[in-house]
């Protein structure tokens, strides 16, 4: 796409869908990287993932959920005991507070169950649209777009929207990509942000959607230097991790 030409809504939709299909081809295995067995576990894990990595959250949640498996257990947990379990995730006092309150609200308002509706989820303490959409999409199979820091940055770089506000990004991108794809769209864009289109040094020279990206060149364009910037299973020598 030429940056100095105004793109029609139809051309934007076509380009966005092409980019999504290509990213899906690049990351067919993209998925929610938080471990969970039920909606409650995913809801709590997503709340804990603020300001830390999914890997760190996955390290503490087995102990958390085996000690306090239900919303009622979480609501009545001993605060200092839970703080010790959550300590590795950072901000552990605030996170313990959030989990205790979340458990109490689920017991009080939803019989201890996680409600499968956006409007109910966002009323829970510490739960915003991002968390709600993660839970809807991955625990209930209800399509949702998760606008985290990666999704917002990439949507703007790829020229899908100029919006900064996450809710506006969600609606703008939701209008470009069919609803049934929204959950997978969130996964592949977030995977791309973590592996290739980094905040500081995007690997433009190794990017499969570079030909459609108006921001091509904001990062490293030399193919070899760009390939060296790729992370996780795309990092040089890590191909075996692609499953
Ligand atoms: S070309 Fe560069 S800026 Fe555009 S999506 Fe790829 S890595 Fe990101």
Helix amount? 40-55%
The helix/strand series, from N terminus to C terminus, equals HHHHHHHHHHHH
| Name of the CATH superfamily of the largest domain | Helix-hairpin-Helix base-excision DNA repair enzymes (C-terminal)
Task: Round the mean pLDDT to the nearest integer and report it.
Answer: 96
Radius of gyration of CA atoms, rounded to a whole number? 19 Å
* Largest sheet composition: none
In the CATH hierarchy, the third-tier topology of the largest domain is known as Endonuclease Iii, domain 2
The portion of residues forming beta strands comes to under 5%
CATH class type of the largest domain: Mainly Alpha
Pfam family, one: HhH-GPD
Cofactor: [4Fe-4S] cluster
Organism: Janibacter cremeus
EC number: 4.2.99.18
Write the layout of secondary structure elements.
Layout: H1 9-26, H2 39-48, H3 54-67, H4 71-75, H5 79-86, H6 92-110, H7 118-121, H8 129-139, H9 149-157, H10 166-174, H11 182-195, H12 223-227
Helix pairs in contact: 1-11, 2-8, 5-6, 9-11
Iron/sulfur cluster is lined by residues 157-158, 196-197, 202-204, 207, 209-210, 213, 215-216, 218-219.
């Amino acid at each position: 796409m030429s940056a100095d030409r105004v793109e029609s809504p139809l051309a934007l939709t076509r380009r966005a869908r092409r980019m999504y299909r290509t990213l899906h081809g690049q990351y067919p295995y993209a998925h929610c990287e938080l471990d969970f067995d039920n909606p409650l576990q995913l809801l709590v894990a997503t709340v804990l993932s603020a300001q830390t990595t999914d890997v760190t959250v996955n390290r503490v949640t087995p102990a958390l959920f085996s000690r306090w498996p239900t919303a009622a257990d979480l609501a009545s947990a001993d605060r200092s005991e839970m703080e010790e379990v959550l300590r590795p995730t950072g901000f552990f006092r605030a996170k313990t507070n959030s989990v205790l309150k979340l458990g109490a609200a689920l017991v009080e308002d939803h019989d201890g169950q996680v409600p499968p509706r956006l409007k109910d989820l966002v009323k829970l303490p510490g739960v915003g649209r991002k968390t709600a959409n993660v839970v809807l999409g991955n625990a209930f199979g209800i399509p949702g777009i998760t606008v985290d820091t990666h999704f917002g940055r990439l949507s703007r770089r790829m020229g899908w929207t100029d919006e900064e506000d996450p809710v506006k990004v969600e609606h703008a991108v939701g209008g470009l990509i069919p609803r049934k794809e929204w959950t997978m769209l969130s996964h592949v864009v977030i995977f791309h942000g973590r592996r290739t289109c980094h905040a500081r040094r995007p690997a433009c020279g190794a990017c499969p959607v570079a030909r459609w990206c108006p921001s091509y060149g904001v990062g490293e364009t030399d193919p070899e230097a760009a390939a060296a910037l790729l992370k996780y299973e795309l990092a040089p020598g890590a191909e075996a991790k692609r499953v």
